[in-house]
Amino acid sequence: RGEQALLCRVTLRVERRGGGSRGGFSFPKLRWVDLRNNSIEAVKVDARLKNMLGPMVLNGGTVAMSGNNVKSFELWTGMGDEEAQRWLDWFQEQVVTTAEERAGVTRLRIRTGLITEAKARWWKGLVRLEELDLTGNQLSNLTDEGLFNGLPAALQKLRLDNNQLTSLPEEIGNLVHLRELGLIGNRLTALPKHFRDLESLEV
């Protein structure tokens, strides 16, 4: 296990110094990486990280990252609903594994370009979430049970730009501390009546 963890640390260091776009590294046979108890504050699943850790995350391996101070999680690059769900499950199960760690997360960005449905379980336990960004996906509705009721009332930024939304749920009115709401590039024909409850919106 020590050799596997060292391999991951060396790989991350090499990629950081390389700075180019030569494709990165992939370790299809690596099954266990331990990055616990470091000082990682942000996890961004871009093309390089997906290529390097994807074989483990998507095929039952372990990439343990609990015990850090993760405040931000971002999903980028083209991935559909099922793959995005696997990465989000990994985030909840191996990155922020305790209530205290989940409470430290303030930003969640899911901008894969291909997801068609948002799930309330994605932000379960993120009680201090301040920013949720779902920009540039293919969301046509927001009907998952408890989707907005599961968001903390303290949420300040909600980005839903460039999706395919035709309506918004009435529960959006519960986000009374919302300051920024992005809806550009959708197919909205009307706003819910409780939209007027969003008195903190900055116009």
Descriptive keywords:
alpha/beta, 13% strand, 4 helices, disordered N terminus, single chain, two-stranded parallel sheet, 203 residues, globular, 6-stranded parallel β-sheet, 24% helix
Structure explained in plain terms:
It contains 4 helices and 8 strands; from the N terminus they run αββαββααββββ. The protein is an alpha/beta fold. It has a 6-stranded parallel sheet. The protein has a two-stranded parallel ribbon with strand order 1-3. The protein is globular. The protein starts with a helix and ends in a 21-residue tail after the last strand. 24% of the residues are buried. Residues 1-22 have low confidence and may be disordered.
